[in-house]
Amino acid sequence: MAKASGLSVSTVQHIWRAFGLQPHRTETFKLSTDPNFVAKLRDVVGL
Does residue 6 or residue 27 have the better pLDDT? Predict the structure, then answer.
């Protein structure tokens, strides 16, 4: 990311930490088991 953006590694780390980003954890995704998940998702997407 640092090389692609032209920023230093430490700058990228500071930005990620400031916004609570953890891109290294994006390989897995779990769908909610909430029975109302679809309805809630539609409400959020509809905003």
Answer: 6
Under a CB-based contact definition with an 8 Å cutoff, are residues 37 and 31 in contact? yes
Half-sphere exposure of 38 (CA within 13 A, CB side): 1
Per-residue model confidence (pLDDT) at position 21: 87
Residue 36 structure tokens: 């109302």
Q: How many helices (H) and strands (E) does the chain have?
A: 3, 0
Instruction: Report d(CA 40, CA 47) in Å as an integer.
Output: 11
Please report how many Cα atoms fall inside a 13 Å half-sphere around the Cα of residue 10, on the Cβ side.
Answer: 0
